[in-house]
Amino acid sequence: MTVINIKDRVKNNKLNLSGLNLTEIPTKEIAPLKVSHLDLSNNKITSTDNVFSSLPSLVKLDLSNNQIKSVAGDIGSLQKLAYLSLANNKIKDLPKGLSKLKQLKHLNLSNNPLKPELIEAVGPSQNNAQCQSAAANAIQYLKGDTKKQDDKQNKKKDKKNNKASPNGVQNDKTKNKTKPKKKPAGFVSKVFGFFGMLISYTLLFTVLMGLSLYALSYYDKKAYGNVKAKLLPIWGSVTSNLDPKVASKVNYYLLQAGTSFDNVVHASIEASIKSYNWVKTNPTVQQYAKNVQDSWKSFWDSVFKKTKST
Where do the structural domains in the chain lie, given as residue ranges? Predict the structure, then answer.
C-alpha cells in the first residue's frame, strides 16, 4: 500500500484520507505531522494495532465505514480524543483502554455487530445526542465490566455448588473461613526489643553525662576535678575485671571518642561566646533583642493575667 502526498492533504492541522481504499493506517507517515483531526472513513482498514500510541495529539478520529473487527487496547493513550466514530464496521466489543479517555464526548458505534450486553449498556448511536450518551455509557460500562464478570462467575459457582450439594446446602468452604488473627509478639522478640531499648537509653544517658562533665570542666575546673577523682576509681574497678588487652582497647577508643567529643563541645562553646560578645558590642542587635524580649514578656503577662482571672 502506498499513500501519495499525505503532507499536501493536511489543512489547519486536519488530515483527510477518506475514500482512498486504504487497507491499513499509514502510521509512520501520519505520526510526524501531529495532526489533531484525522479522517480515515470509507476505506478498507481491517486493523488498528500499533496505531494509537503514535498519535497522541488526536482530538477527532473518524474510522467509520471500514472493516475493523476489533479496536486495539492502546486507544487509551489518546488522552486528548473527544470525538470517535467507529460506525459501520464489524466490531463486537470495546477494549478496556477506552475507559481511560477522559475527554471523550462523542462516540458513534452504530451499525456494528455489538454483543448484547454492550448494546444494552451503550444504546443506539445514530444522532448526535445518542453519540454523546454512548461515550459516557461506554466508559461507565468498561469501568464496571470487571465487576460484572466477577459477579457472573460467582453466580455460576453458586449454581454448581447448589447442584452438587444435597438439600441445596452449599459446600463452599471458603465462606466459613475466617481471617487469621495476628500472632502476638513472641518471647524472643520481646527480649530483643527490651535490650534494644535499654541500650538506646544507656547510650543517651552516657552522651548527656559526658556533655555535662565537659561543660563542668569548662566553667568550673575544681568541681570537675572532684567529680573526675570520684569516677576514675569506679571505672578502674570495672576495667580491672576485663582482659588487659580488651581493657586497653576500650580505654583507647573511649579516649579517642572523648577527645572528638571535647573538640566538638569546645567549638560550640567558643562559637556561643563569640556570638554573645558580638551581640554585646552591637547596640542595634541589643535593641532588637530587647524589643523581642519585651514583646514576649508582655505576651506571657497577658496570658498569665487571663488565666489567673479565669
Answer: 7-144, 199-303
Give the rounded percent of residues in the chain with a pLDDT score beyond 70: 62
Q: Can you give the length of the chain in residues?
A: 310
Q: In terms of DSSP bridges, do strands 14-16 and 10-11 run parallel, antiparallel, or are they unpaired?
A: antiparallel
- One-letter amino acid of 146: T
The answer regarding whether domain 7-144 maps to CATH 3.30.70.1230 reads no
pLDDT in tens, 82-135: 999 999 999 999 999 998 999 999 999 999 999 988 888 887 766 777 888 888
What sign does the dihedral 199-202-207-210 (CA atoms) show? negative
Beta-bridged to residue 34, according to DSSP, are none
pLDDT band at 159 (very low <50, low <70, confident <90, very high): low
214: left (phi over 0), alpha (psi -120 to 50) or beta: alpha
Mean pLDDT of the chain: 77
